[in-house]
Amino acid sequence: MKNNELNRMLFSGENTAKMPVLFVGHGSPMNAIEENEFVQGWRNIGKSLPHPKAILCVSAHWETRGTFVTAMPKPKTIHDFGGFPKALYEVEYPAPGSPELANETKRTVTKTTVGLDEKWGLDHGAWSVIRRLYPEADVPVIQMSLDYGQAPQYHFELAKELSALRKKGVLIIGSGNMVHNLRMVAWDKINEPEYGYDWAIQANNKFKTLIESGDFKSLVNYASLGREVQLAVPTPDHYLPLLYSLALKDKDEPIFFFNDKPVMGSLTLTSVKIG
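-> structure tokens emitted (275 positions)
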């Protein structure tokens, strides 16, 4: 999409049908180049979505002091990981950026001052998933950072302010993992499909039950949900993108779970489509 067309959509007051919202469990960076059931799940969801005018992605892998959005016209592909095969570092995802959407997001959010970033780009929490949804790299993409100094309630309230973008053709994606404890990975089970510790499966099921019941308050206050959740979310970075997605759910919107499986004992790739 040409920038002038996106600019017209965002600033003319013209609305479109409300876009769905995604939370994607992105798992290993290797999902960017491997063929597996999770990748196919992303492809299938991509085919089910209306074609967006642009994408705003909240990734677990961009934490900042304050809140920022990428505002460059051509974001770089960031290979923010180590110890993987050379082929993974050779992947480029040349989706355009959108300074127009960055500025519209800055105006839309009133809870804080959103900074315009010209240095970051697209990290693997964004491009490893989005390249499977839109392999032609023909949809403009911006990222929004996670302010690591703020509590979960703050993030949930900030995310609600993004709701208007859904009616402007913007697909909002949270990218993280509901259960993400790398210190407890079962390396001896790495090739065993769908292996999860009991606590990981219990935490994942608890999250799904609360999502289905609409009890987002409990999900925001996840630290009080018991030992299995404390193990599932030892740090908030991979969990907070889920709250960004859930905050955008309107009343009576349907919820669909996909890729709902554990891997390596202490992670789940459970993902959510809203709307």
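Residues 194 and 263 are 5 Å apart (CA to CA).
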